[in-house]
Amino acid sequence: MYVSGQTAWDAQRRLVGGADLEAQAKRAFENLRLVVEAAGGTLADVVSLRIYIVEYRADKAAAVGAVFRSYFAGETKPAAMWIGVASLADPGFMIEVEATAVLD
Length: 104
Known about the structure:
The protein is α+β, with helices and mostly antiparallel strands and 104 residues long. It is 28% helix and 27% strand.
């Protein structure tokens, strides 16, 4: 399963978290969880991630890393690539998550 474009939008397409990267990351990862579960899987089925972060700097790693570890708390974690970008589709987005999951 290929999942793209998980951002900090809620079900009504409202931006969650404002200018708080950690809050946006929580919403994006929660959206990822909901999509994978809707397809019959769990986050344990996710084998790789691409995490796009606007104007990424090392000081942003702690916020995103904490959220990543809370959603992928198990012993085995997906391969993850963090990519700094100038901007995303909506000017309010600070993070976007793509994933690949293997479902049985």
